[in-house]
Specification:
This protein is α+β, with helices and mostly antiparallel strands and about 80 residues long. It has two helices and four strands; from the N terminus they run αββαββ. The protein has one domain.
Length: about 80
C-alpha cells in the first residue's frame, strides 16, 4: 500500500471513530473535509474525541484545534470547524 494512501486511510479512520464517539455522547457533528462541524458548546468534547481516536488508531495523540469559528463572539449557537 502506498504511504500516502495509508496516511489518508488512517486519517479517515480517526475522523470516523471521533464521529462515533461524538454520537455516543449525543453530540451532533457534520463531516467537513478533514474535520467536523459542530456546536461551539461541544468544543471540548470534540477535541477529546479526536485526540482519543487518534491514540486508538495510530497510537499517537494528534492535537486537535479549532480551525474556524462561524458564530458571533459569545453566541452559544455558533458553529466550529474542529
Amino acid at each position: 500500500m502506498p504511504v500516502g494512501f495509508s496516511i489518508m486511510f488512517d486519517e479517515s479512520r480517526i475522523l470516523l471513530k471521533a464521529l462515533e464517539k461524538l454520537m455516543d455522547r449525543g453530540v451532533v457533528a457534520l463531516p467537513q473535509h478533514d474535520g467536523r462541524l459542530l456546536a461551539r458548546s461541544s468544543k471540548r468534547i470534540a477535541k477529546e474525541a479526536l485526540e482519543t481516536a487518534s491514540m486508538q488508531i495510530v497510537r499517537v495523540r494528534v492535537p486537535a484545534e479549532v480551525k474556524a469559528d462561524y458564530g458571533a463572539p459569545g453566541a452559544t449557537e455558533g458553529l466550529l470547524a474542529a
